[in-house]
Design a protein that fits this description.
Blueprint: E1 3-14, E2 17-29, E3 34-38, H1 45-53, E4 59-65, E5 68-70, H2 76-81, E6 82-85, H3 99-109, H4 115-125, H5 142-154, E7 160-164, H6 172-189, E8 192-197, H7 200-206, E9 209-214, E10 217-223, H8 224-229, H9 235-244
Parallel strand pairs: 3-8, 3-9, 6-7, 7-8
Antiparallel strand pairs: 1-2, 1-4, 4-5, 9-10
Helix pairs in contact: 3-4, 3-5, 5-6
């Protein structure tokens, strides 16, 4: 298995108040599989992704990536294993850094040499001209910025990509382009994806399997065949499905 999660809990505490965001969830993702996690805002799905990415330390349980258990403090290799693409392609890029600088940053952080050819290659792989390296984020469209964000996530050649609503901030006309780019990169590189969304139509397009999340727990699991045939096993999953495909 490329991802193994067992009894994952996340509790945020503020004074005497506790918010149990993720409640003892367990799941596996096979190598090359695309797993979808869908649910309403605030159900815990983005927090779950942040735990996998090493960005959230307030968890307990077990997380294993590429067959190795990872802790809350991670080595360079462990951080490199799973990279994340965020919802807002503008907010995730530094407004005063040129695109080339943004792409070079993870390479420098991981001690790579010969950086510029890798930056050029990364831009070409996501369908952008090499000349874009000298531009600033505000000079790009939303779709182009998200292509840069995907290039930055892939530049370290991780086996796992974590996608947090990667198309929800984009125009509908651009969403399909980005999903197709992600699908092409997955197939070319043999990547494993975890895709978080509130949109079952996006999930159905991309995913082999989907977990339905409600209040920090998984309440249903659907195969690709289930999604295509409108099969659910839980009332909440049925509500989500009907709302997405009306």
């Amino acid at each position: 298995m490329m991802i193994e999660v067992r009894d994952l809990n996340v509790v945020f505490a503020s004074g005497k108040q506790e918010n149990h965001v993720v409640k003892k969830v367990s799941f596996d993702v096979a190598s090359g599989e695309t797993l979808g996690i869908v649910g309403e805002s605030g159900c815990g799905k983005s927090t779950l992704l942040r735990c996998l990415a090493g960005m959230e330390n307030g968890w307990s349980g077990r997380i294993a990536l590429a067959g190795k258990d990872v802790g809350k403090a991670r080595s360079r290799d462990e951080l490199k294993c799973a990279q994340m693409v965020f919802q807002d392609p503008y907010g995730s890029l530094h407004p005063r850094h040129r695109i080339g600088t943004a792409l070079a940053e993870p390479l420098k952080a991981m001690g790579h040499s010969d950086i510029w050819p890798k930056v050029e290659k990364a831009l070409r792989q996501v369908g952008l001209p090499v000349a874009f390296a000298s531009r600033f984020p505000h000079e790009l469209s939303g779709g182009q910025r998200q292509r840069v964000a995907i290039a930055r996530a892939l530049i370290l050649q991780p086996p796992i990509l974590l996608l947090d609503e990667p198309t929800s901030a984009l125009d509908v006309s651009i969403q399909a382009e980005i999903l197709n780019l992600l699908a092409d990169q997955r197939d070319e590189r043999g990547l494993t994806y975890v895709l978080v969304s509130h949109d079952l139509a996006v999930i159905a397009h991309m995913c082999d399997r989907v977990l339905i999340m409600k209040n920090g727990q998984f309440v249903d699991e659907l195969t690709k065949s289930d999604m295509q045939n409108g099969v659910t096993h839980d009332a909440y999953a049925r509500e989500l499905f009907e709302a997405s495909f009306v």
